[in-house]
Amino acid sequence: MVNIALLGFGVVGGGTAEVLTENKSIIEKRLGCEYNIKYILDLREFPDSPFGSLVVHDFNTILNDPEVTVVAEMMGGSHPAYDFTKACLLAGKNVVTSNKEVVSTFGEELCRLARENGVRYLFEASVGGGIPIIRPLINDLSSNKINKISGILNGTTNYILTSMRDNGASFEDALKKAQQLGYAEANPSADVDGIDAARKIVILAALASGKLIDPKSIHVEGITKITLEETKLAQELGFTIKLIGYTEITDKGLLAFVSPRMIPSSNPLCRIDDVFNGVLVDANMVGEVMFYGPGAGKLPTASAVVADIIDIIANRDADVKPIVWEQATDVDKLCFDEYACRRVFITNDKAEDALPACERLVVSDGLRAYVTKDIVSEKEVRVISDKLGEKLVSVYRVL
Amino acid sequence: MVNIALLGFGVVGGGTAEVLTENKSIIEKRLGCEYNIKYILDLREFPDSPFGSLVVHDFNTILNDPEVTVVAEMMGGSHPAYDFTKACLLAGKNVVTSNKEVVSTFGEELCRLARENGVRYLFEASVGGGIPIIRPLINDLSSNKINKISGILNGTTNYILTSMRDNGASFEDALKKAQQLGYAEANPSADVDGIDAARKIVILAALASGKLIDPKSIHVEGITKITLEETKLAQELGFTIKLIGYTEITDKGLLAFVSPRMIPSSNPLCRIDDVFNGVLVDANMVGEVMFYGPGAGKLPTASAVVADIIDIIANRDADVKPIVWEQATDVDKLCFDEYACRRVFITNDKAEDALPACERLVVSDGLRAYVTKDIVSEKEVRVISDKLGEKLVSVYRVL
């Protein structure tokens, strides 16, 4: 009998209790072993929940119970989630989490503590919700060198961008609708400013490279400045605008950033719409593979949390290869200036003179959208932007 | 040092040698262990290959060498691939394979022999080429009950259907082009008659249900009867025709079949084009997730073969939960008659009288395509088809 404790009984915590209960018989059959939810830590009481009697308010009850060997942290936020995780690992308890903030910020230390204490720290649910992506990167693509990863990693912003494109809604109206539907928080900053996507892309970058970058140190642009006019211009150019978390392992170091990008219709990410997520992995032997599914939501996210719990129980006696990350240095972060891709320059006036050779031009509503023929680096974009001055409305990266 | 033998030095075998060599340093670093390709079994000599000196012609050289603990079978066909696999497992050697014919026909026995002999039999490359799908079904979706799987599992037929839809090519012309490009064999029957897809869907069905159905016993339709006119009608209805391997775990038993289907534009499979494969999994907690990528090809398939080799080496001292299948009985196969979905009836004359309520009708080139409002079972389709008589041109299942 394996005893499990859940930290946090919000959306994901509640879903995890539900998955562990609903699918108990098939999971126990697969495991050949029984399990039990022994405690649920939350500040609140849940008198009407079937799990209400399991709720405790003192973390030490869990920490000091040697019967608890697997802890699922689903509290969100850095503190006390990080502190509780660390205490559990030090006490020889395995931890699984859906908390991308903790993994992206403290993942190097927590993976190390897990190794040092002979336990595991797993976080499949921290990226892509229910989509299997972390474990496939570790196991299934283990025969490959990962070259780059491009992901639609945030369902809220993808819903808003899809709504702008398909319904002609303004950013503000689309956001309001997303809030009404429960897809966006009252304070939507973590989503619309790209912070959530930044946390996720540094986790994927670490899995691909072994190096964890501080998510606060990378270039992050959100979607708040995207206008309906730009959405339309993108469509006329045959592109669709998506918020993309991007990482690439370059000769100069590890690159990771988040920004809206113009996605060509030939790229499978251009068809990932609404609240869905998609992660496109480019690896040296397999080429491109994509993982698609619900990037958030109660049961999908819980499905990934429970997959990690099952992994731990199934391999409790095995000597599983641990995750080893090192903290990325400044050198790894220096390569953004050199990053080069095709660009779309949007101007409010004729601007051929100030631009590099362009392969296409679309004019609409007084705006002109130029697609460069060749790739242009970030450094060069800054020079061109200065030259364009007031004429420049915006610049997009093409994926 | 782990010694590996490759059986077969064709496309996949050559690719596997290449992946093991090209990515040797990163793989050995991940494994913390060295490996070596000791033998390559083939009937031919390869004097110009860097691997030429490893080639042997006598299988017993490999079988009787106790140093060889991992064997990758990439010969294709049932015999002697099955016989060699069996001999290796009985001799206590782990086997990985890309051979869907062997897995789909003899998988129950070979998984059992692996268990009984304390070794592993892995086959990630047998479905979806380089796309991670087998291991994610086993590990990542382990917290779920799988309800159904729909897959574009054959790149050749997907290329042909894409070419018919986008270029207006006839089936014959598209097949000829596919043969010129090396996507289709001189004898294309295994692909265009759906045999290859049938093998793959029974493997996926077995992973979802634990029961392996004989691929020869399931309903299989290929793509040879699809006309350009039908492709156009599908488009006018907002559908796209794809060859789909489908499995569903029903109350009555395990259902699996292969047929062309009309895919609505809202289904992510409708956008999987050309030689790419896509597998859409519907599971009770996560909902729908999709895996997309190159379903064939030298390096992608080899990438999956090598992922299995790595899995075996990494877990060589672990007590890994074995795959347990049983052979499906007739009872499990009985549910096809009850299978119900919406249908598209294509007729050469007005046929409202003989059809159930339809929600849409498109008329073109003397053909009429009716989409039923409700789902219709296979049994009912036969009754309706009899009533339609000469008027009936074809019937499609809607996914």
Beta content of chain A comes to 25-35%
Pick out the low-confidence regions of chain A. Answer: none
Number of helices of chain A: 14
For the largest interface, the chains and their residue counts are: A-B, 54 and 54 residues
| Shape field of chain A | elongated
Backbone structural class of chain A: alpha/beta
Evaluate the radius of gyration of chain A: 23 Å
The quaternary structure here is homodimer
Largest sheet of chain A: 10 strands, mixed
Which descriptors would you attach to this protein?
homodimer, 399 residues, ten-stranded mixed sheet, six-stranded parallel sheet, 20 strands
Task: Describe what this molecule looks like in 3D.
The structure is a homodimer of 399-residue chains. Chain A is of the alpha/beta class and 399 residues long. The first copy, chain A, is 36% helix and 27% strand. The first copy, chain A, contains 14 helices and 20 strands. Chain A has helices at 11-22, 24-31, 59-63, 81-90, 100-116, 134-140, 155-167, 171-180, 189-192, 195-209, 228-236, 298-314, 330-333, 378-388; strands at 2-7, 35-41, 55-56, 68-73, 94-97, 121-122, 146-152, 211-212, 219-220, 239-250, 253-264, 276-283, 287-294, 326-327, 340-341, 343-347, 358-364, 367-372, 376-377, 392-398. In chain A, strands 7, 9, 10, 11, 12, 13, 16, 17, 18 and 20 form a ten-stranded mixed β-sheet that branches. A six-stranded parallel β-sheet of chain A has the order 3-2-1-4-5-6, with helices on both faces. In chain A, strands 8-14 form a two-stranded parallel sheet. In chain A, helix 4 (81-90) packs parallel to helix 5 (100-116) and helix 5 packs parallel to helix 10 (195-209). At the A-B interface, helix 2, helix 6, strand 13 and helix 12 of A face helix 2, helix 6, strand 13 and helix 12 of B. Strand 13 (287-294) of chain A pairs antiparallel with strand 13 (287-294) of chain B.
